[in-house]
Specification:
The chain is mainly beta. Helices cover 12% and strands 34% of the residues. It has a domain of 70 residues.
Amino acid sequence: MTRTHRKTSSFAHPFLLKGVDRVLPPGDYEVVTEEELIEGLSFPVYRRVSTVILVPGQTRYASSVEMVPVDPLDLEAARVRDTDSQLPSSETRPADMPPSGHTPLEPGRS
């Protein structure tokens, strides 16, 4: 028995994904994940079988779409990069706000 999950990932900036040989434009992308039931257990457990993202095709037809296999971790990394690029630059960032991805140290620690 299998089940399918569909969700939308939104990108505000052009981005790259492993497995795609071009920069993808900003926009909303459908992500489809298929899972299968692991049988023989006393409770239902599913494991991921595949995850694909639907991207615009490389043809001249606007309705062309490609289903590209994607690692969910790579997709999340691309979303984090997209979110990080929306943060203020160091020139406009408040002095007490650390750069993206950095955690401030506790007082007295270096």
